[in-house]
């Protein structure tokens, strides 16, 4: 060890050096976060654009089936209009009757979208119409996330607020998971195969198939069908959305209709996909009490209401999966869990009802790729 | 979809990290040689710092190489309603559960699509 002199810098210089070092460290940190958020915004934009072009492609494919060629400029403008259109929530100051208002809005939105799509492709099949609506819905979600992230980022930069940027950065993994999930939904819907959320409808259909039900569907409400059969001397009425298009049906309307014809229902069993926690295995089957149903809650409210009025016990069978799995084409684990879910339904019916009873079995979820 | 974009970004980073790694290994080596020739302690401490940087880059490179983009294969199970004969195939466009897909080769019963799912390709 030669040439080992003490530090030539004195304390003051050290202090200046450390201050500058920390300052640059902070600036570098901000730069790194900004770059990271920018790259995500770029990614989200790319995903959004891809989804929009998938919607446009689907429209053109349908038009080509009818022998029409649509002007691409016109179509792009129309599709962007549909994606940018907004549903305005009803006033919640006086919540009495809000569910009926929400239901009215949902039905109007749905019918309006039907009209808009049919204006572009008049002779579209029901299944394709539902799939197109799904695609538009997904593109809408992706558009929203892209714009919201971009907005927050611009605000953070405008006010030079590191805290807005920090918050955004902290949220990015969660937002990205949802965006990637919806993106895979676009892919899955354009293929038309069952998705994770189709587990409910698929389970009830396979239950009907296993037990030799009549698989000829009866239309019971808008986009909702009914299957009937017997299981161990119990009459089982199955309700699900009408497939194989990507529809969730109007299950509450269907149940209301069933109660008009049928007065003596001993139990309502709902089957649905449910969100799993990270530690839980995909495809785990869980029993529950209540109505297993996602969404805004309008249909759930209506079903709970009628069940409460008539004092009918509500049973649920849940198939656990993550958000990305629910949106993407059905995974092998979920597909294999269907048989277990059927066994759970059978057990529930056997244990909770008696011979001669009538059971209402509802397959909740998007029925894409599942007939009838 | 966006996996292609991620792939592109990943490849870009792998190239950058590889170049940086080579550069820092060379710098470390040259400082070590200079230390050995001139026997100056300053060279050894500089070479130690550059070596740490090289290790950090190597860790990042390993991480970039490790991230895998999942690939899926689609599988359809076709089953006979009468005898239970079944086989797996790639689903056709427009296939759905319970779709009639022909006649059973074993008992000439109805063949239907029993399930469609995706599987991760290892
Ligand atoms: Zn057969």
Q: If you had to describe this structure to a student in words, what would you say it looks like?
A:
The complex is a heterodimer of chains A (372) and B (122). Chain A has 372 residues and is of the alpha/beta class. Chain A has two domains: 21-191, no CATH class; 196-363, Peptidyl-tRNA hydrolase (Rossmann fold, 3-Layer(aba) Sandwich), CATH 3.40.50. Helices cover 58% and strands 14% of the residues of chain A. Chain A has ten helices and seven strands. In chain A, strands 1-2-3-7-4-6-5 form a seven-stranded mixed sheet. In chain A, a hairpin with a 2-residue loop joins strand 1 (214-221) and strand 2. Chain A is globular and about 95 Å long. The mean pLDDT of chain A is 89. Chain B is built from two helices and four strands. Chain B is rod-shaped. Chain B has helices at 2-38, 41-66; strands at 71-80, 86-89, 100-103, 110-121. By secondary structure, chain B is α+β, with helices and mostly antiparallel strands. Chain B has two domains: 3-66; 72-120, Ribosomal protein L30/S12 (60s Ribosomal Protein L30, Chain: A, 2-Layer Sandwich), CATH 3.30.1330. Chain A binds chain B through residues 1-4, 39, 43, 46-47, 50, 180, 183-184, 186-187, 191-194, 202, 205, 209, 215, 243-244, 328-332, 334-335, 338, 369-372, and chain B through 1-2, 5-6, 9, 39-42, 72, 74-75, 81, 91, 93-99, 115-119. Bound molecules: zinc ion.
Computed Rg of chain B: 29 Å
Q: Taking Cα atoms only, what radius of gyration of chain A do you get, to the nearest Å?
A: 26 Å
Tally of contiguous helical segments of chain A: 10
Order of helices and strands of chain A: HHHHHHEEEHEEHEHHE
Domain count of chain B: 2
Q: What bound compounds does this protein have? A: zinc ion
Structure class of chain A: alpha/beta
Number of helices of chain B: 2
- The N- and C-terminal alpha carbons of chain A lie at a distance of 85 Å
Oligomer: heterodimer
Arithmetic mean of pLDDT of chain A: 89
Total discrete domains of chain A: 2
The average pLDDT value of chain B, as a whole number, equals 86
Largest sheet of chain A: 7 strands, mixed
Helix content of chain A: 55-70%
Strand content of chain B: 15-25%
Roughly how much helix do the residues of chain B carry, as a percent range? 40-55%
